[in-house]
Design a protein that fits this description.
The structure holds 2 protein chains of 2 kinds. By secondary structure, chain A is of the alpha/beta class. Helix content of chain A is 52%, strand content 15%. In chain A, helix 3 (76-88) crosses helix 5, helix 3 (76-88) packs across helix 6 and helix 12 crosses helix 13. The longest helix of chain A is centred in the C-terminal third of the chain and has 31 residues, at 261-291. Chain B has helices at 5-10, 29-34, 51-64, 78-84, 112-123, 126-134, 136-144, 148-163, 181-193, 196-202, 204-209, 214-231, 233-250, 253-265, 279-294, 317-334, 340-343, 353-359, 365-403, 422-434; strands at 40-44, 68-73, 94-95, 104-109, 168-172, 269-275, 299-307, 409-413. Helices cover 57% and strands 10% of the residues of chain B. Chain B has an 8-stranded mixed β-sheet, with helices on both faces. Mean pLDDT of chain B is 76; it is low at 1-22, 204-218 and 335-361. By secondary structure, chain B is of the alpha/beta class. Classes of the chains: A alpha/beta, B alpha/beta. The interface between A and B is large, with 87 and 87 residues. Chain A: GO terms for molecular function: ATP binding; ATP hydrolysis activity.
């Protein structure tokens, strides 16, 4: 199992949720994981219903069986000051740089630098060992930028090598790439059973593969439960309205006679079934497309009551059951 | 949701009972689209809520109501782009074929790099433009800076508006990580490229010569030294030449950013916030509403996409589930036989059902009856899911309305599939204009 698990996905597919659930699942039974956020959205804090995360690793959840999940929101500016401190012992000069807007400038505009700092920090956590020589974290899970930007984000080497040809940033980029392109890393893509996210997933995988970045699994999120199966849907097309009316009436929903309460329910219920059938067919189509990607495919259920902390544990259990941890 | 069966059974006009609680004003899009003073409509909102589709549907509707419209989309779904004929990336508006009426619909997909290149080419002489375009720093900035897409969308909007070729411009905003990015990006990029640091980088000698600026010069040399070490000297030199070239040709990014900003505040610009009735999307929408007010930008209303309805709104989730269980229990306990008494009660069609169903099916009448019961139980469960979804959506909407009662809302019912063609867009436009889902 790769120790750096990167989770990406099209916006709106729930990649932060999946990353958090994965961190929980990997922590189960005494392991320690670090969940890393790189886009400054504080999505992890929202999910775990805690206050905004500082730039500091802090424990945010306990996993079943005694494991621990730590979280870190990486702030590129502070990460840069960290590095400057490490390499140049800047002290107060760092603050002066900040005042001038140099830090802002360097982390926001300097191409690739921001990404090197973000991935660099994550890779540092992957490699970090405690005094006894054990890894500080068993796993690091990164809530990464969306699919459209993921290859570029991870492929910092190309970005940076051409621009910063020497110096610590260059070396840093090289070290990061060694981790990212090794089996130590797996990049997972989260999608929905809808056309655009599936298309973007397929494109994203092609890009990752072209950049020789290790693609992990495809995780289909928010899968609706199957209420009617293929046989039911076949019957929906041929069934007599009157026999449905009678079944409804038998179930205690009023009269089946024309104009009776049960009879009046038939059309709207069948219409809802037709909508369901249309969506079902679309979803099957998208499943088939995903099936052709040649990657392990996992499905997570749509939580009826919306996403909350309990739901997160539910998804973590589901991921474990499916062998993701 | 009512637990009283009598009340539920009386809900004969199949209107969702919950909906009557919604007290928000209804957004009427047609007067907005028809008004010749409306020149720009900006669709904004979180990613994944159907912004692009809404923008395209509004554009089509305005065109078919007689206006000459251009729709600027950022990242349309492939098939939608193909259906509008804008899947090629040439960064100029194309006339969309197949519209009805006297108006015209043009559409384009934003190519941000190309737009940036055009800005450079328009403002620099050929030699200098070539130098900028070849600069690695420029290449990275134009393709990758987090705010470039937002900035270029606004830049393109400014260009389209300046041409005076269209009555109405409908613009879709980029799928930002935050819906606010497109408001902030121009300023952010502007202040970077026009800021103190850049001025220091480009003209250290001039600044250093001034009295009282000596300390800055010290800071400056230390800083360029540090940045140079950190990034490599070549990069810093690239940045300096890039900024110098930009600075002399552009007359300041901040000026352009300010102009874009003013355009958004000008009369004739209307903002529509697009959302879906989900917690995160509406939270983002509420945020946006506040932000637009703070920036003096005119919000016309909220387009709420993917609202679910039900033709059987009178049947509550609880009763539907109970009935489904009735059907499933009866099947197990009675083996299809004991129900006969019930089936033949005077209230039902009685025996007419079984032969009719049996005729069209294989197997015994009892088998058929069982499969119809099974299906009916499934239909009821499906309905229960729908009703639960409906009440969740209602709660989310109510929370938004409570916070922002002044915001007019147009609801667009959820469609089972994606929109791929003009007919689909026209349909969305009709539903948008209706303001709330039709009662079926």
């Amino acid at each position: 199992m790769s120790r750096l698990q990167v989770v990406s996905g099209k916006g709106g597919t729930g990649k932060t949720t999946v990353a958090a659930a994965l961190a929980l699942a990997l922590a189960t039974e005494g392991k320690r994981t670090l969940l890393v956020e790189v886009e400054g959205r504080q999505g992890i804090a929202q999910l775990f219903e805690t206050e905004a995360l500082p730039y500091e690793e802090r424990k945010i959840a306990v996993a079943p069986g005694g494991g621990e999940v730590y979280a870190l929101a990486i702030d590129p500016e502070l990460a840069l000051l960290d590095y400057l401190q490490m390499f140049y012992k800047l002290g107060g000069a760092g603050r002066a740089l900040k005042k001038l807007g140099a830090i802002d400038f360097a982390t926001t505009i300097a191409p690739g630098l921001r990404d090197v700092l973000l991935t660099g920090k994550a890779c540092e956590a992957v490699r970090r060992k405690d005094r006894s020589g054990r890894f500080a974290y068993d796993y690091v899970v990164m809530d990464a930028p969306p699919t459209g930007r993921i290859t570029r984000f991870l492929n910092v080497n190309d970005e940076v090598a051409g621009l910063a040809k020497i110096g610590p940033i260059h070396n840093q980029a090289q070290a990061v790439m060694r981790v990212l392109k090794s089996p130590e890393t797996a990049v997972h893509l989260v999608t929905l059973l809808e056309e655009m996210p599936v298309q973007e997933t397929a494109d994203g995988i092609a890009e990752l593969r072209a950049a020789r970045l290790p693609v992990g699994r495809v995780i289909v999120n928010m899968v609706r439960p199957e209420v009617l199966d293929a046989a039911d849907l076949e019957l929906v097309r041929t069934v007599e309205r009157s026999s449905v009316a009678q079944a409804l009436s038998a179930a205690g929903l009023g009269g089946a006679r024309r104009g009776g309460n049960a009879e009046k329910l038939v059309d709207p219920l069948l219409e809802q079934a037709a909508e369901y059938a249309e969506r079902y067919a679309l979803e099957q189509e998208q499943r088939a497309v995903l099936g052709e990607l040649g990657l392990p495919l996992h499905e997570l259920p749509l939580l009826a009551e919306g996403m909350d902390l309990a739901g997160l544990y539910e998804l973590a259990t589901e991921l474990r059951k499916q062998g993701l941890s | 949701m009512s637990a009283d069966p009598a009340e539920a059974q009386d809900a004969a006009p199949h209107q969702d009972a919950a909906r009557s609680r919604l007290s928000a004003r209804v957004l009427d899009v047609d007067p907005l689209l028809d008004d010749p003073r409306t020149r720009i409509v900006v669709c904004c909102g979180a990613g994944g809520v159907g912004k692009t589709t809404t923008a395209a549907a509004l554009g089509l509707r305005a065109a078919e109501r007689g206006r000459k419209v251009v729709v600027l989309t950022i990242d349309p779904a492939k098939r939608l782009a193909q259906s509008m004929g804008i899947d090629s990336l040439d960064n100029v508006p194309r006339r969309v074929k197949g519209t009805e009426g006297d108006g015209e619909l043009h559409a384009m997909m934003l190519d941000m790099k190309r737009t940036f290149d055009e800005v450079v080419e328009a403002h620099a002489d050929r030699e200098r433009a070539a130098a900028i375009l070849a600069n690695p720093f420029y290449q990275s900035l134009s393709a990758g800076f987090a705010g470039t897409q937002e900035y270029m969308a606004m830049e393109k909007l400014g260009q389209l508006r300046a041409k005076e070729e269209w009555d109405l411009i409908v613009v879709d905003t980029p799928p930002s990580r935050s819906a606010l990015d497109f408001l902030d990006a121009p300023k952010r990029l502007g202040s970077f490229l026009d800021g103190r640091l850049i001025r220091l980088l480009t003209a250290p000698a001039k600044l250093g010569g001034r009295a009282g600026m000596a300390f800055l010069n010290v800071g400056m040399s230390m800083m360029t030294g540090t940045l140079g070490k950190l990034l490599g000297g070549q990069l810093l030199k690239d940045v300096q030449t890039f900024v110098a070239a930009m600075d002399t040709t552009f007359g300041g990014f901040r000026t352009r950013a300010d102009a874009t900003y003013k355009l958004l505040q000008a009369p004739g610009t209307a903002f529509l916030v697009v959302a879906a009735p989900e917690r995160d999307a509406l939270r983002e929408a509420a945020y946006f509403v506040q932000r637009l007010a703070a920036e003096d930008m005119p919000l016309m209303g909220l387009v709420l996409n993917r609202v679910h309805g039900s033709g059987a709104g009178g049947l509550s989730a609880e009763r539907a589930l109970a009935a489904a269980e009735n059907l499933e229990d009866a099947r197990i306990v009675d083996q299809g036989d004991g129900k006969a008494g019930l089936r033949n009660s005077p209230d039902t069609y009685g025996s007419s059902r079984t032969p009719a169903a049996a005729a069209s099916e294989e197997g015994s009448p009892a088998d058929t009856e069982r499969s119809v019961d099974r299906l009916t139980a499934g239909l009821l469960r499906l309905h229960a899911d729908r009703m639960q979804l409906l009440s969740r959506e209602q709660r989310t909407r109510d929370r938004f309305t409570a916070r922002h009662p002044e915001v007019a809302v147009a609801e667009v019912p959820a469609l089972p599939g994606d929109v791929h063609d003009l007919a689909g867009l026209r349909d969305i436009g009709d539903r948008l204009a209706a303001g709330r889902p039709e009662d079926t």
